[in-house]
Amino acid sequence: MTHFGVTLSQYIMEEQRRYPDATGNFTLLLNDIAVSCKMIAAAVQKGQLANVLGATENENCQGETQQILDVIANDLFIKNNAKRGHVAAMASEEMDDVYPIPDGQPRGNYLLIFDPLDGSSNIEINGPIGTIFSILKTDKKHPTEADFLQEGVKQVCAGYCLYGSATMMVLTIGHGTHGFTLDPSIGEFILTHPDMKIPETTAEYAINQANRNLWEPPVRQYVDDCDLGVGGPRKKKYTMRWVGAMVMDIHRLIQRGGVFAYPMDSSLTQKGGRLRLMYEANPMAFLVEQAGGIATTGYERILNLTPQKLHQRVPVIMGSKEDMTILLDNHKAYASETDKEFKHQCPQYQ
Ligand code: AFP
Predict the structure, then answer these.
(1) What is the pLDDT of residue 3?
(2) Is 266 part of any known ligand binding site?
């Protein structure tokens, strides 16, 4: 059955009316992103029938083996955006360096940053995977890496496309977080989840428990308290979930509340964390905050971080306000006992 709702294109064009000086470039860029995601969804759905499963012989700049679908998704994003005239440059988790728009091609004033296929280890097992994207502005015609290194608060748009049992695009342009479901019968994303709000209370957390012995005390304290259940300080029974694809774990959290954490641990100090600031943490933090949640490293609001490099990694903890407040209080107390600096500032946590 076809859902007669607002399409993604219609939604974006309506939003454009808020900006009388808008040229329409941003609307067209979002359309190109949506088309790229539909193409990736089509490849994901065919799976082995289209010979798209399995690993390549290449490693990406993160030292991870690239899957065939990683490469297909990356190529689709590049191809669908490089010659359209809306972006000045792109950066992908799968590419070492900034992708400049080729000479002679029209260029716009947006920087497109993406993780073409997040959760690649789920590809083989037919598990949920997704695409994450973030858009910044620039006035440079030939941007370099330095032009991408803007705080997350400067994002003009962030979103993800979840290739799950249904394909869903969730995005924010700074006026709430909205979800669109792909109707395969008409090939359009339809607004099905307007103004998504993360429940403030929760009894669910998502964390890779295998790293428990490596976490810092504030996170271990939180999880220990949750695990004590009704007899513990939280006085309720918690559930743990871990999909191994941030897009899915965050989508669940936005829909029904929860905490998602890939915190700092003693094996990650050299790297700075596990998840990538520009490709994962910043866009998800923007979506989570716009849905009423909190996103932090434990010590600092993610959206306030000044990026040092394109592929920078950071600790990530985000989710429902009540549990995030406990986690931040734990970090604040720990910081006061150690030489760590606590400077998390956001409207949701004072
Ligand atoms: P890949 O895209 O390389 O599979 O990484 C996925 C991810 O960045 C994020 O989506 C997951 O939450 C996290 O890594 C899973 O990490 P672990 O495998 O250490 O649990």
Answers:
(1) 54
(2) no
Report which ligand 1 atom has the smallest distance to the Cα of 245.
Answer: 10
Q: Which long-range contacts (CB under 8 A, 24 or more apart) does 194-198 make?
A: 196/170, 196/254, 196/255, 196/291, 197/291, 197/292, 198/253, 198/254, 198/257, 198/288, 198/291, 198/292, 198/293, 198/319, 198/320, 198/321
* pLDDT tens digits, 16-67: 888 877 788 999 999 999 999 999 999 998 887 777 777 887 887 777 778 8
Pocket test for ligand 1, best of 275, 278, 284 (most atoms within 8 A of CB): 275
208 lines ligand 1 (CB under 6 A): yes
- Say if residue 76's pLDDT is above 80: yes
Q: Annotated binding residue at 96?
A: no
Residue nearest to atom 1 of ligand 1 (CA): 119
Whether residues 59 and 152 fall in one domain: yes
Residue at a domain's end among 195, 222, 257:
195
CATH number at residue 218: 3.40.190.80
- Residue 254: per-residue pLDDT: 98
Here the CATH number for the domain that contains residue 129 is: 3.30.540.10
| Helix axes 68-82 and 25-46, enclosed angle (nearest 10) | 150
Q: Give, in degrees to the nearest 5, the angle at Cα 196 between 306 and 37.
A: 70
Domain residues for the domain of 325 are 204-338
The atom of ligand 1 lying closest to the CA of 249 is 12
With respect to residue 134, please indicate whether it lies within any of the assigned structural domains. yes
Domain shared by 168 and 256, yes or no: no
Domain C-terminal end among 140, 165, 195: 195
267 annotated as belonging to a binding site for a ligand: no
Q: Examine the domain organization and report whether 212 and 167 are in the same domain.
A: no
The model's pTM: 0.95
Q: State whether the beta carbon of 121 lies less than 6 angstroms from ligand 1.
A: yes
Count of structural domains within the chain: 2
115 labeled part of a ligand binding site: yes
